[in-house]
Known about the structure:
Blueprint: E1 3-5, E2 11-18, E3 21-30, E4 38-43, E5 54-59, E6 66-71, E7 76-81, E8 89-98
Antiparallel strand pairs: 1-2, 2-3, 3-8, 4-7, 5-6, 6-7
Amino acid sequence: MLINGGPGGDKTVTGIRWGKLVQLNVSIGTKLTTAWGEETIGTLPASWRPKADVSAPTAGRDGHNQMRIIVSSNGKINYQNQGGTQSNEGVLTTVCYIAA
């Protein structure tokens, strides 16, 4: 487990790494409902960070919420709502990238 808790206490990031290839499994239990709302889930250890920012679009659990997961080269993992006001339903998704 790389990150456990996050804002609201119901966000986790688990990962595996093989050489420079990283796979993160991101679980967000509840999220902000504001249009274009953004929240930081946590920060990755230096050896798990991507060389360039990674953006992974995804749909929320109810199929209506559009959001993206952003893994920044500084290690921050954020999610950002895309578009209008949304429900607080979370998401479970996978993000893959090359580590720096």
